[in-house]
Amino acid sequence: MMHLEYLESFLAVAQYHNFTEAARSLGISQSSLTKRIHNLEESLGFRLFERTTREVRLTAVGSLYLTYADKIADVQDAFDAQLARNFSNGNSLAFGMIPSASEYGLTSLISAFMRDTNHRCSVFTSRSEDLEVMLDEGRCDFAFIKNDSGTHSFTRLPIARDHMVLVVAKAHPLARRASVSVSELANERFFFEPKDSRPYLDCVELCRTAGFEPNIVGTDSQIANIVDYVAQGVGVSLLMRRIVPADPRVALISISPHVQASIDLCYRPGRLTGLQREFLDYLKDSRRG
């Protein structure tokens, strides 16, 4: 009996002509991939690939097998899609969201998907670094992550961009400046997002690179609270532009060096369920429109 993971592994190697790239696309080790291909070849009684130091090529039997493997994969995909449509236990997706999801249009996206497809979705909110762990452990189907660390072999689709700004009170001496160098902030008092969070660490590293240790007088998980502290004149902050709520009491100033953030839809590589593929297709169609 052929295992589906053997079929997936064969198709990946046939696509990439490289065991390292194929293993990365499947989210498994190269040794595991090699073992799968070996077991498949043993069960068939034929070699499927010719391996050299430069490339991996299909044998004649491998080329023949590829034709049928594609058909088997298509049948499995059709079955998965029908299963997702017909049965409620395959009709739900789990999403991980960053706290600033609404500012980047992510809540609107998921709401529209649920409304247009009648699929059930569970959504939970956490920090990007925690979402990476949850996604890697399979506790969610997709995660919207800001500045993915790159330590996991996720597939990533760019969703939004943002950039960091300096937030100061309107009465602050820098409030009328169009741009400020981070090195000019050495004597300021800072309010940052929670300690040890990715935004906190990024801001601290930015200040250290500019030649000073930031004087952090407070942290808060609520951006509105940070902005209110700044508006009261007790400190300044470095925040992503799109998450700063409108407040006439503060000014937003560009900083140098320019710091960008990427918000990506991340998911585990390898075989997707019919419902997961349906969401990705929906996302592509909505962005195209």
UniProtKB/TrEMBL annotation:
Domain HTH lysR-type: 2-59
Keywords (A to Z) from UniProt: DNA-binding, Transcription, Transcription regulation
InterPro entries associated with the record: LysR_HTH_N, LysR_subst-bd, WH-like_DNA-bd_sf, WH_DNA-bd_sf
Entry-linked PROSITE patterns: HTH_LYSR (PS50931)
Pfam family, one: HTH_1
GO MF annotation terms: DNA binding; DNA-binding transcription factor activity
Entry's Gene Ontology cellular component terms: protein-DNA complex
Keyword NADP tagged: no
Keyword Transcription included in the entry's annotation: yes
Family: Belongs to the LysR transcriptional regulatory family.
Full protein name: Transcription regulator
Upper lineage: Bacteria, Bacillati, Actinomycetota, Actinomycetes, Bifidobacteriales
